[in-house]
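Let us work through a complete example step by step.
Step 1: write down the sequence.
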Amino acid sequence: MSNKKTVRKVKKKNPNLRLVKNGDIQPKKNRKRRDKQEKIRFDKSKRIGIAAGSFILLLSLFLGGYYYIVKNYTITTVYVEGNIHYTNEEIMEMVMGGRYGNNSLFLSLKYRDKGIDNVPFIQTMDVSIEAKDTVRITVYEKALAGYVSYLGRYVYFDKDGIVVETSQQKTAGIPQVTGLSFDHVILHEPLPVEKPEIFDEILNISQQLSKYSLSADKIYFDSDYQVTLIFGDAKVAIGDSQDIDEKIMTLQYLLPSLAGQSGTLDMREYSEDTTSYSFEKD
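Step 2: predict the structure and record it as C-alpha cells.
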C-alpha cells in the first residue's frame, strides 16, 4: 500500500451564499409587514421633510413681503384740510392711530370705499393715498352757525337751530349767541326759543362775518331781537336785520380802529351816504 494521503479537492464556496439557521427564518408574512412599516416610516419622514420645507419657504416669502411693505409704504407726508374744531395732530391721531397706522397700504385697505364717521363736530373724513409715502385727509365738519352756553357746556347748533353737539371745549371761529331764552337742550333737536326764525338771521350774520374774515366773540340779541356784535371789549350795535349785509361789509374797514378800545360803535342807522359812525367809550 502506498503511504500517500488521498487529498480530496474541495470546491470553492460561493461568496454570496448565506447560511440561514432555522431560528432565523421568518415567515413571508412578517417580512412583508416589516417592509411595509419601513416604507411607512420612510414616506412619513418624506412628507414631514416636504412640509417643513414648504413652511420655511412660505415663512421666507412672508417675511420678505412684510419687510418690503414696511420699508416702502411708510408714510412721511400727511396733508390735512378742512379742519377747524380739531388740530392737524388730533386728526392724524384719529386716522393714523394704532398699529400700522403709518403704513399707506394698510390705510388704503382700512378706509377703502368708506369715510370716518361718528366723530363729534365732524360729518365725515375722507382718506386718500396719493403716493406710497403720502396721504391726504379731507375733513368735512358739521355746519355750525353758533353756540350757546348752557349748564357749563357749550351747545353748538346749525343753521336750523338743531343742536349738533355739546362740549366743554370752545371752538375757535364759532360765535357765541347770547340773549336767547330756552329752558332745556336736547341733542339733535331744535333749541326751544320763542322765535325760531332767529336762526336764519344768526346764520346770515355768521356767513357775512366769515365772508369778510371777521370773527366776533359774541352775537347778542336784546329783548327786541336787536343785534350787537362783540369783539373783545369793543361792541358794535347793528340793530335789526335790515341792511345787515352792508353793515358788516362796512364794518371790516372800521373794526381795525377799534382794536384795544372799550366802548360801543353805533351802526344802527345805516345808509350808503354815511361816512362816519359814533363811538361811545365805556
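Step 3: interpret the result. The longest strand covers residues 122-131.
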